[in-house]
Amino acid sequence: MIYINLILVFLVLVGIHEYGHYIVARLFKAEVTDFSIGFGKPFLKYTDRNGTTWKLSPIPLGGYVKIKGLDNIFSPNPKDEQGSFQSLTLFQKILVLLAGSIFNILSAWFALFCIFFFFGIVSLMPIIGSVSENSSAFENDLREGDRILEINNISIEEFSDIPKAIANNQSINILVERNNQIIEKKFDLKFNEELNRYIIGISSPENPIIDKYNLIDSIKNSSLFIPTYYAASFSFLQQSYKENTLGDQLAGPVGIVKNADQMMLDQVRGVLFLFIVISLFVGLFNLLPIPLLDGGHIMYFIIRRIFSNSLPEFITRVYLAVGITIISFLFIVVTYNDIFYK
User: Fold this and answer.
1) 197 with 191: CB under 8 angstroms?
2) pLDDT-based confidence at 340, cuts 50/70/90?
3) I need a labelling partner for 334 at 20 to 30 A (CA). Which of 83, 101, 140, 240 fits?
4) Domains of the chain, with CATH numbers?
5) pLDDT, tens only, 67-83
6) How far apart are the C-alpha atoms of 290 and 269, rounded to whole Å?
7) Within 115-203, where are the H helices?
8) Residue 65 pairs with which residues in a beta bridge?
9) Would you give the DSSP letter of residue 329?
């Protein structure tokens, strides 16, 4: 069931992305000949009254929307036929290319809204549920039931705030509440080789608190989550680059499949979380100005307009070569990392 849910997440993501391209292209009267989810020979297909053939193919690693004339956009003199991609204005072309990523981000926002409004957010109070033997907490008389108030002068509101406050510090200054008394302790932490960080040696309480939000707060929190997620991801990539561990952090389809049993994909929450994370990633990644991605296409059409749509053929060839090289390199690195390190 876990792997079926994983495949369904991929298929829905692809369908949403490609439908964004499709619906905006049709809005501008461009003809769409094919809409495919998956690659390979389709095992299901249907042609609608607009002449679009809808396909479901067996290889669930992507999909495509084939707009009339789109396969000729890199030819030196593309034909400007009615209903073709070339017949669209530059602004319309950009909107068609942006639509896939926008639909991914909007679908992630909607899934976030559903989590806040219908399911609620699980949070754990900063109360010690148990103390590991021979840990720093055990040796310094932290006890089950102690409520952690501060670590290194950082206020602790939830249990998840504790590792953030500890960060990479070897020693901590901690305030706990025990039997209505405030106790201050300062001690060194032990280094955990498996986690590759200093740990305190405590676990969370067993009973979490579920906070459900009203309509307005759900809209607000789901909207704020997206820029916060992107900012945190950017900071994480920066830190990984500085520590020269960026290559180890890259994961692709193989890595996701190998770790599927750790993602709680047998639960609705786990499926929604994976859908949100991948949707936000795909939405942003496709907008990067890398040749052959949507963002790269946008950059290409803007540059070509600067040259009055008569961009030298050499530039187009370089664009295609660079795009194929970058994407092939990323594919090889990610796949190698998935197989040997994840």
Assistant:
1) yes
2) low
3) 101
4) 2-119+272-341 (no CATH), 123-210 (2.30.42.10)
5) 988 777 666 566 667 88
6) 33
7) 136-139, 161-166
8) 35
9) H
